[in-house]
């Protein structure tokens, strides 16, 4: 991975990241073999890092990189993906939009349910009022004043 000194040729991507830009981490993922490799810049050169359970935490970013099996852009396979401190995958834009859609739909359903409950309570109150009026009318027909009871 770019360890050679290439006289008279432009530097490799590895050499640029390691020696010129001094990027703290260098990550490779071979989608054919599904091999994830992570290197950390230590003492001016990239050193391979141990990857636990196909995941690697980067403390400087407070994020991790790992291999996730799922469907993305129509392909079901292993993907390189970010995760948070709790180990939750960071949602893609499509996942975030779907989650927002579901939350909006749930809020609409809850609002509809609250409206229905309010209508039901109002109907029950009206029915109780009608029954009270009917009972009062019967009492009056029997010669009893309901207001004096």
Name the average pLDDT: 93
Task: Please give the share of residues in helix.
Answer: 25-40%
Q: What would the principal axes of the Cα set say about the shape?
A: rod-shaped
**Spatial arrangement of strands, main beta sheet:** 1-2-3
Radius of gyration: 34 Å
Q: What proportion of the residues form beta strands (DSSP E)?
A: 25-35%
Straight-line N-to-C gap: 98 Å
How many helices in DSSP terms? 2
Architecture overview:
The structure is a single chain. The protein has 149 residues and is of the alpha+beta class. It folds into two domains: 78 residues, no CATH class; 51 residues. It is built from two helices and six strands, in the order αββββββα. The strands form two sheets. Strands 1-2-3 form a three-stranded antiparallel beta sheet. A three-stranded antiparallel beta sheet has the order 4-5-6, with no helix packed on it. The mean pLDDT is 93.
In short:
The chain is of the alpha+beta class and 149 residues long. It is 38% helix and 28% strand.
Entry keywords:
rod-shaped, 3-stranded antiparallel β-sheet, 2 helices, 2 domains, 149 residues, alpha+beta, 28% strand
Strand and helix layout:
Elements: H1 13-20, E1 25-30, E2 35-42, E3 45-48, E4 55-58, E5 63-72, E6 75-83, H2 93-141
Antiparallel strand pairs: 1-2, 2-3, 4-5, 5-6
């Amino acid at each position: 991975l770019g360890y050679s000194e290439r006289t008279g040729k432009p530097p490799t991507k590895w050499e640029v990241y390691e020696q010129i830009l001094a990027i703290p981490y260098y990550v490779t993922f071979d989608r054919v073999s599904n091999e994830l490799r992570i290197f950390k810049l230590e003492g001016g050169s990239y050193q391979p890092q141990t990857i636990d359970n196909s995941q690697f935490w980067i403390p400087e970013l407070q994020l991790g990189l790992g291999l996730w099996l799922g469907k993305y852009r129509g392909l079901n396979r292993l993907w390189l993906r970010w995760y948070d401190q709790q180990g939750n995958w960071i949602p893609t834009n499509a996942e975030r939009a779907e989650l927002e859609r579901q939350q909006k739909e749930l809020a609409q359903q809850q609002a509809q349910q609250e409206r229905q409950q309010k209508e039901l309570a109002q109907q029950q109150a009206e029915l109780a009022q009608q029954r009270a009026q009917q009972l009062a009318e019967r009492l009056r027909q029997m010669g009893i004043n309901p207001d004096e009871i």
